[in-house]
Every structure is written in C-alpha cells, then in structure tokens.
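Please, structure for the following, as tokens.
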Amino acid sequence: MKPQDIVHEKNSLWIFGYGSLVWKPDFAYKRRKVGYIKGYKRRFWHGDDFHRGDKEKPGRVVTLVEDQEACTWGVAYEVPESHMEESLQYLNVREVMLGGYITEIVEFVPKEKSHTPLLALVYIATSDNPTFLGPASDVEIAAQISISSGKTGHNIEYLLRLAEFMRLCCPEVEDEHLFSIEAALLKIFPCGEITTSAQKSLQQGP
C-alpha cells in the first residue's frame, strides 16, 4: 500500500512518529495526536552515521521491531493535501535516504478515547539495513549514545528528548527499554552532568 492509498476523504495523510519526529517533525502539518500503534516495540537498535553520529562513531536511534504483545506510543501528524508532496519528499530524504528506513502502513489509536483509530504511514529500519546494529545491553547502548554526535545534534539529546516526551505526554506508560537506557546514561556522568555539546543542543530547543 502506498501513502496515496490511505489519503482520507478530507484529502490528508497521517504520519506516525515514534523517535525524533515526536518533538522535531520539521514538516507542515494540520494537527497532531498522541497515541499508539500495536504489534511493535520501540528499540534503540538502529545505527545512525549522519543525524546523531558519524562513520567513526555511529549513534543509536530507535526503530520498530515486530512484537504482537507490544505497543509503541508516539505522535501522528495530519498532513493536508496541499503539503503532502513537499512533506513526503522531506521525509524521504531524512528517514529513507539518510536514515535507512522503509515505510509501512499501521493502525494508529489516539490517546483520546473519543477519537477513532486511523491508518498512518510509519518509517521503520529493518535488520537487513547495513546500518542496523541490533540488540545490546542498556549499559552498552548508553555508552555508545554518550560519545556519539552528528549533523543534527548529540545522540544524548535524542535519548533525553524522547524520554521527556513520554513522561510529559504519556505519563501512565512505562517504557522500560527507553527509561533503562536513560538511567544507564545518567550514571555515566558525575552528578548527572551530560556533555557540553549535548547540553547546548538541549538548551537550544528543537
């Protein structure tokens, strides 16, 4: 199924983000909804040698791994028809060409009970991608994140902003994988102090 196949009656497309897209979409959209998709778990298993790392020290960013018992929380953005081509071209560069992600169509369930589920486009990095890193312990992932930085910013910023989103927008959800890596990262730095470059990225905002 192509993105055009899920354009609704109102001539719009929904795009689901579960990583940096939750705080940094950088494309035009009409509205956003917090919610989740079923059948996938979010994992820091994908390598990033552009946005949050480089060829020497690739960063770790999230992808989705199939798990019928799991669900992943994030944000769905409604992109109007007038901005659809522009937004998809931007995301193709950001997520596919530079990130190594592919697209899938998923059912998104809004957090607001009064809102009905909808179909959304999502970007997923699979294990056959050359930059896919796979599983590692929380400590190993945190250590890699702590020393990685790319053209978009420090890998630490990526992790902390994602954890912040979950606490602010989904406080009832316990994302064990995410929060365990965050805890392991904070233990690396004395008194919880993170690196100077990561602090600057956080202070500058999205």
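The chain has a mean pLDDT of 89. The longest strand covers residues 59-80.
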